[in-house]
Amino acid sequence: MKKALLMFLATSLLFSTLAMASGSSGSSGVPSSGGSASVDPYKVTETLKCVVTEVKPDGTVMVRDSKKETAHVLSFSHNTKLSAQDKKAFGGRKTLEVADLKVGQQLKVVMRQVNGEVLRVRVLKSA
Fold this sequence. Notes:
With 127 residues, this protein is an alpha+beta fold. The protein has one helix spanning 2-23; strands at residues 45-55, 61-65, 71-74, 81-84, 106-112, 118-125.
């Protein structure tokens, strides 16, 4: 009985090791980036430090990346969380709205790299 159990465990370990080894090589497990060379398939989110250049009436916000000097258009969903770094700013409110954003404010934006969905926005400095 002990011998049969030991053989079962040894073969189970051998097959699980072979299955993991065969799945770890090649590019079959790498998600497709849709042909874009700038998207890292292993990086889930991207963080931008940027400055607000325009707030549009439809709720989109134009920003300029502080490091790369590139422009971005931010569209917010109902899941986007807006907050301020300074707890006394905005009347002490913990959550903000897109209407609270003003031109010249410095932001820290966390977004999904794959589709550009904005997850979090933190106001670092007010204009």
